[in-house]
Amino acid sequence: MKQWKTLNTEYVHKSSYGNIRKDICELPNGMVINDYFVNEYSDWVNAVVLTKENKILLVEQYRHAGNDIYLEIPAGKREHGETDEEGIIREVKEETGYISRQTPILLGEFMINPATQTNKIRTYLLLDAYKQFDQELDETEEIYVQLLDFESLGSLIKTNKIKTQLFTAHAYYLTKTFLSENP
């Protein structure tokens, strides 16, 4: 299988949230697509955060594109100059006030949607977390912290008893696998 050849690129939109790029692409069979749109977004980090009592730390917040309130794991973009590990530690602390003395464990790195997006997400596990600080939210954030029993989250996801997103569900199952292989 061969990669497509980009014949031309122009930006349709640029913003601090991401860019929309229009490519003209030539496929290996010679066909040309004149308007292949690509969303350029920053990479993200997220983390399953567990307390010593095996509670999972979740953040509840309104998501405008989904037009509803969702329960998710802490996540965000890295700030300039941060490593992924520094970024997730900062995000968890800012959104929840929780920290851990343990080093974040990388569970995996994944493309979000390589058909139309350029960004990746790196998923971490933070163990033995505890509340140490007050939240430090941006003026556009309203986040409520919830602690749930880690084991019960799976059935809540499967039965749609909570509104969440794919990244939280995926990270939950990655964590279950990691913990079963590393008791």
UniProtKB/TrEMBL annotation:
What's the name of the protein?
NUDIX domain-containing protein
The record, for PANTHER family, names:
NUDIX HYDROLASE DOMAIN-CONTAINING PROTEIN, UDP/ADP-SUGAR PYROPHOSPHATASE
- Identify the keywords attached in UniProt to this record, alphabetized: Hydrolase
Which prosthetic group or cofactor does it need?
Answer: Mg(2+)
Q: What SUPFAM superfamilies has UniProt attached to this entry?
A: Nudix (SSF55811)
Domain Nudix hydrolase: residue ranges: 40-170
Give the species this sequence originates from.
Psychrobacillus psychrotolerans
CDD domains per UniProt: NUDIX_ADPRase_Nudt5_UGPPase_Nudt14 (cd03424)
Q: Carries keyword Hydrolase? A: yes
- GO biological processes: nucleoside phosphate metabolic process; ribose phosphate metabolic process
List membrane-spanning regions: none
User: Tell me, what is one Gene Ontology molecular-function annotation carried by this entry?
Assistant: hydrolase activity
Task: Fetch the Pfam families from UniProt.
Answer: NUDIX
